[in-house]
Amino acid sequence: MNLLTILILAIIIYLIAYRVYGNYLDKLAGVDEKTKTPAHAMSDGVDYVPAKAPVLLGHHFASIAGAGPITGPIAAIVFGWLPCFLWIVLGCVFVGGVHDYFGLLTSARHKGKSVGEIIGQYVGKQARTWFLLFAWLTLVLVVAVFAILTASAFAANASVATTGFLMMLIAVGMGFALYRANISLPVVTVVGIILLFVSILVGLNSPFLYFNQITWTWFLIIYIFLASVLPVWMLLQPRDYLSSFLLYAALIGGVLGVIIVRPTLVYPSFTSFKTGVGYLFPMLFVTIACGAVSGFHSMVASGTTAKQLDNEKDVRLVGYGAMLIEGVLAVISLGAAAMLTQEGMKAGLAEWGGAVGVFAHGLSKFMAGFGVPEQTGFVFGSLTVSAFLITSLDTATRLGRYCFEELTAEAMPSISNRYMGTIITVVAGGGLAMSGQWSAIWPIFGSANQLLAGLALLSATAWLAHLGKNFKITYYPMAFMMLVTVAALINLVFTNFGKKNYLLGSISILLLILASFVVYNGFKALGKLQEKIAAVKD
Asked: Considering the entire predicted model, what is its pTM?
């Protein structure tokens, strides 16, 4: 099988889905471009700042992508490339895209509030509290993990570190040029892109930042604190917008390279139902998260993105569209791994620095097809991944701050502000990053993330049911994600206790209890809503 064939197939399916299924979602939800969004109604110049559709798409895509659509498919290919491909395509269209769409729209319809607040309104206050606590802890884990991965990438490659640092400075300049000097978006964009590629050339030819991982971790801790408390237009929004062009370049380079090189998929299409990762069901659907569906996306959509939504008509492009773009990236990442044999894959993971190295190696092979030196392509691929990581890192910090503020707003209003919320989130995440204790929890992160997805779909289902609309399009994906998560957690309980890893086993049990509590309250609320609807009809 040729990689070009499955890539073209995926893109065609995504284009049709965006046009047909996306249009259906708009009609079902009653999207109205005349509706005043929170970004306008609650504009404060800090968090609620209207952003033009291309800027918001760039921010959202750069924030949700992370390393998930790259590492997930590469880790899951042990089952064979075919089941991975099917889940990426079908998951994006019917689960992940729907999940992100309603995560953004429901938040925009509720003053930019998080999924937790929406659950509190339609499911119950207790469910809201437990969800926000769970979401905050998950985001702390994201901060810790991405801080370590970004710091290690910067420490290992001064070219990547130098370019990444220069991008931060360029982004600040773009923010002031756009929002304070009132320079037009096209002009700021062109200048920003030119400076971006200048920074890449500087990084490749004259890197000047050589620090160890600990030093870079401290730098990132300071950076994410600033990214969380500063007005969104000053750093977070323009940095993510600028990064998006780097990510788009990697996507375009990968697609063009595949068209020219037309690499053959040599990895088996299917290996075994049971592998070292576990059973195909449920572990495939937990291992490939961001490339198909990810609960983290709902936190981004209902956290930073909803507060910047300029017009409701942009929901399809930003919410549903960004997920489909991420699906293309996941297919390219899968192809980078499927170009290798099983033995070559094992060697590549060891020699190139894990899944990120396998992706960078594959991208360098693709880009070599149109004349880019493989070493340059490898550095570019590594830089692209680091851009994914840092955009998710700063967004996760801000989202953690939002969750903390909502969690403490009533009980502890004195600490429910952006400074305390950021400090506590950064200290918790940074402490884990410094201590290395995050690695003990990482194996269950996939399950926790997918649990978030199921709960976000639960909130969308409750909202649609409350409005008396057809909620099956969110109900069935929700039920599937709940089933996957519970099965994965049960598997992890037995696996970890069998290995006498009592920490992971205990955490898995806690997550099962939490999932059961929220799901029980969710279905109970849905039952009551259905009774009210039936009574009205009668």
From this structure: 0.87
